[in-house]
Every structure is written in structure tokens, then in C-alpha cells.
Amino acid sequence: MNDDKLHDKLDRYKSFITSAPGADSTGPVSSRYRRMADGAGGEIVATSAGSYCLIKTLYPFDSFFGTATLEPPPRSAAYPLSAFGTRDEDGEVPVSSLLYFDTETTGLGGAGTVAFLIGFGSLTEDGFEIRQYLLPDYSDEAGMLEDMLEEFSDGRVVVSYNGAAFDIALVRSRLIINRVAREFEPTGHLDLLHPTRRLFKRRLGDCSLTNVERELFDFHRVDDIPGYLIPSVYFSWLGEESLELMTDVLEHNRLDILALHFLASRIAGVFASEGESLNEIDDIHSLSRVYMRRKDHSRVLDVARRLDDEPEELLAEDILWFNSLVYKRAGRWEEALRIWQGLTESDSREGFLAGIELAKYFEHKQRDIETAYRHASRARLVCPPVSTHQDQLAYRLERLKRRLKD
Q1: Per residue in 316-352, pLDDT tens?
Q2: What pTM was computed for the model?
Q3: Does residue 29 contact residue 18 with C-beta atoms inside 8 Å?
Q4: Any idea what DSSP says for residue 104?
């Protein structure tokens, strides 16, 4: 390659070469970074390890998010920790300590994945502030990460959506790769994906954050950029200095973070009210199952009884079956019998199980062997093709038959 061609090639790539600290601010790289800041509505922050673009957005109190309103929390407001975990944990987390966190990346995994946009949200005296750290080029990552790390100080408790499996792990690996920090462990972490699934998956099915927004808050994003397009927007900036869709990416990230605030409040409210804030049958049933896994039987009964006034035709058979076992455990035989007798009209698995429960009740509680045998015989007609069910039912029928002859 001759010298003229070499110089031409170097000139074409000059704008992509990061200036060293202290370089002439009027140079091509600085103007490129300024274009990013102007297009993103932020400012360039220069550090000895690199530069980044910082964008701050304030949502004032009384802002709407669908049917929800951004309100200042009461002084010393706190969320119960038990709202977000599988166990009934003691303790609370102050709302003022929550740090809402989300990333946009160059891919979904692998050693080369970089978080080019890291967003944080927190409540302030004036509203909900979102701070976004946007990476102008790969060589500036260490500088961005060093300043970003300060967001996690002061005992902040991170709130994310699937952050335990992805965002936190990614940031940790990038901190190590860039030699910014060897260890990274937030003071606390509330991953909202899991409590959202426990409470709302039965009704919603799709627990993606955008669908949760629509169903729980009636919030509909307009012209939201699909997640799979986001990496290509950043690559367009790196390769062509195009910012055409970068504002859409920033807005997508902001809405994700804002949604986390309202979702955390909604989940905490469910447990603080012990389900009184729920109106949908599936959600009420899901909460009772959460309490059942925690072996909190008194709360299970309280929540299950909220469905007593609902017409049985509106209750799915598995809900009826679950509630019947709750009543059985509590010794409320009248309610349990009513449900079992209704379920025996069904040819479903729940109809079979209800027949077995009736057989057991009349054999052991009422000593009415003839009625017990009749229910067991009815259950045989709808017995699922499972060998354990069939063997146990055959044994029960044989025993009842012997007792009828005695």
C-alpha cells in the first residue's frame, strides 16, 4: 500500500479514534461527542479514564403513568421486604433508598456484550429523576463505569426487572474487565420479575414489562422501539454517527425505569393490604398460593374467603379445588363439601380428586360406608390415566367393598 492510500485510509477512520485526555477540544472526536450530547439532550462528562454523555430527566409529581399518578411518598415510607421474596421476611426497605436500574446493551449475552446505556431512577424532592449514562465509544467505558458506580453508594437498594440474571451480572463483568472494581455487590436487590410472575402471571400470561404496564396501569407506549432493534441503533452511531433513533432508545429506557417505580409500589401495596387492593379473581388466587407456600395458613384462609361471594361458574376448577383444601385444613367442612359436591359433576382431574375427598369424608368422618363407596365408584369413571391414582383408587374401593359386607 503506497503512502497516499495509507493516509486516505487513516483520514477515514480519524473520527473514530478516541482522543487522549487533554486533547484539543476543537478536534474531530470532541465535536463528534458534542453531537451525541446535543442529539441526546445531555452533556458530555470528561474523566481521566474517558468521557460519557449524561442525560437527566425529571418527572414531576402529579405526572400520569396510565391510570397511576406519581405521588410524593409519605415521610419515612417503606415497603415490606416480604412483598418481593418467596419467604415471609421481617423488615422493611425505605422507599427513599430505592435505586431503579436498567441497561440497554449491544447484545443479549457473551463476553463482548457491553451496556452502552445504563439508567437509574430515584425519588427526589421534586419528583422522579432519571439519570442515563450513554457511552460514546468503547474506549470510554471505564470512565463511564467509574462514575456510574457512585450511583450504588449510600446503602442504595437496587430495583430491576430480571436484573439478577442479566443486568447486575453484566455490569459486574464489565467492571472487572475494565479494572474499575474487582467486586460489585449492591447493598440490596429487589428483582421485580419474580414477584410479578407470582402475583400476575396466571392472569397476564405474558409478564414482559410492557405487557405488565398495559394490564396493570393501562399505560400504552406509543411508537416504542422494539428491544431487538436497540443494539443496531448503537452500532449505527459507532459506524455512521447516526443518532436517528437514539432518542427512541433513551425514551424506551426511561419508561422501563419509570415502570419499575410504579410496579414496586403496586406489589408492595398488595402485601401491605393483604390482598385487599386486588380485584381480579386470578390475582386473589395467586396471592393465596403465595401465602400457602409460606405456610401462612391464616392468611391463606382470609384471602380464599374473598372468593366466597363470586359465582362458582366464574371460578376455575383448580381455584375451587385449592379453596376446598384450604377449608378442609381449617376444619370448615361445610364449605369444603359444597365445593367437592359441585366438582364431582365435572370429568376433570379436579372432579376425580373431589370424589376421592368425598369418599374419605363419608368413610372417616360420617362412617357412612355406602355413600363413601358411591363417591369412590363415581371417581373411578373419571380417574386420570396415572398408575398411582388407579392403584390407590382400586385399593380404596376394595377396602370399602369389604366393609360393606361386614
Answers
A1: 999 999 999 999 999 999 999 999 999 999 999 999 9
A2: 0.89
A3: yes
A4: E
Location of C-alpha cell 449475552: 109
Following DSSP, what letter does each residue of 163-231 receive, concatenated? TTTTHHHHHHHHHHHTTS-S----SEEEETHHHHHHHHHHHHS---HHHHHHHHH----SSPPPGGGHH
CATH class label, 3-272: alpha beta
Q: Where exactly does CATH 1.25.40 map onto the chain?
A: 311-405
d(CA 67, CA 83): 22
Contact by Cβ (8 Å): 92, 79 = yes
DSSP three-state, residue 50: strand
Kindly give the pairing relationship between strand 115-123 and strand 98-105: antiparallel
Q: Does domain 311-405 have CATH number 1.25.40?
A: yes
Q: pLDDT tens digits, residue range 123-161?
A: 999 999 999 999 999 999 999 999 999 999 888 999 999
Residue limits of CATH 3.30.420.10 in the chain? 3-272
pLDDT at 145: 97
Three cell numbers written together for 101: 436500574
From the list 148, 156, 150, 149, the residue with the least C-alpha distance to 97 is 156
